[in-house]
Amino acid sequence: DQKDAVNKHDVLPRRVFAPITGSNVTLCDYMFEDETLKEIQERFLEMVDQDLQEQNFVVAEDMGTEKAPSHRAESKTNEEQRQILKKSTVASKFRQNMGVVLAAACALLATALSLNYYID
């Protein structure tokens, strides 16, 4: 009984795509197990103030919605994915902080030039 309770929480939400009429934009939302397309339609109405037709919705059946048996090869793939994610996170943080580093370098250069100007 406890296993059934744990597995019930393993079910992932499904993605629902809805095209906006008159444009190339497609919205995406997540539909949980206890929700209906009508509720998703109401949420889209709140977000974009446009009544999207339920028959145009595309519900994606993601591969990850069922619990797959774990294999050693999969765990290696997951470990590789974690390392790739870690590297991309470090690169992202570096890019975010690059502006601060450049600003500090510009401030130091401006200070050095102004001191040089006032000394002469």
Notes on the protein architecture:
- With 120 residues, the protein is an alpha+beta fold.
- Helix content is 56%, strand content 12%.
- The chain is built from 3 helices and 3 strands.
- It has helices spanning 2-8, 37-48, 72-119, and strands at 14-19, 26-31, 58-60.
- A 3-stranded antiparallel sheet has the order 2-1-3, covered by helices on one side.
- Strand 1 (14-19) and strand 2 form a beta hairpin.
- The radius of gyration is 25 Å and the shape is elongated.
- It starts with a helix and ends with a helix.
- 3% of the residues are buried.
Summarize the structure.
The protein is an alpha+beta fold and 120 residues long. 56% of the residues lie in helices and 12% in strands.
Q: What is the general shape?
A: elongated
- Element-by-element helix/strand order: HEEHEH
Radius of gyration: 25 Å
Biggest sheet: strands, sense, closure?
A: 3 strands, antiparallel
Strand content: 5-15%
Low-confidence stretches: 65-75
> How many E-type strands?
3
Number of helical stretches of at least 4 residues: 3
